[in-house]
Amino acid sequence: TRPLLIAPSILAADFAKLGDEVRAIDAAGADWVHVDIMDGHFVPNISFGPDVMKSVRAASKKVFDVHLMISPADPYLEAFAKAGADIITVHVEAGPHLHRSLQAIRALGKKAGVVMNPGTPASSIESVIDMVDLVLVMSVNPGFGGQAFIPSALDKIRAIRAMIGGRPIDLEVDGGVTAANAADVVRAGANVLVAGSAVFKGGQYKENIAAIRNAGAI
Ligand code: DX5
Ligand code: ZN
User: Fold this and answer.
1) Does the annotation mark 133 as catalytic?
2) 74 in active site
3) I want to staple 36 with a disulfide (CB 3.0 to 4.6 A). Which of 11, 50, 113, 116 is the partner?
4) Is residue 3 over pLDDT 90?
């Protein structure tokens, strides 16, 4: 089984001091930095683009896990690769050519991830499972931090864990993850926990990350 990793989402950070926020979560014990890219079209919110991502990349040597909530994604894959992404994850729902998008990410020398919305079944990724390094299960409808975890995500995590079998693929969960549900999420088969509000709340990043990690260490 793969190691448990905590990936704070900088969507919940103070954008006025994004570099400092990334340094702070790095020092507080984050394993990865989860970067949410939103285009106001695929999701009803806008975050930031590759130039901002490139500037904050300099603040940490940790893995930058880039979650693209944009459609189309293909025209921007190279920009995010050049901006310093380590993993680039595209949505099943973002376009008709998921296979091409994943090929393009690997051709750029980056790890490829695939993600599905709560309304999209686990079976939607069967045809591409051998093309990915990471599968991300959304446990909220993407667009905003601070939403409640959707319990049916647990069944989907179990189904995808079975689909992965012995492949060296990380299984990540994003949306409403807290210390209170981390054990359920890990028990269902996830090994990478994204957390935005649960990490940044109250400014106690180290304690918050440790609480999620301890709860998930089952
Ligand atoms: C939602 C984003 C998430 C979000 C998580 O569209 O993909 O990464 O920032 O935030 P919390 O942990 O607050 O649900
Ligand atoms: Zn995300």
Assistant:
1) no
2) no
3) 11
4) yes
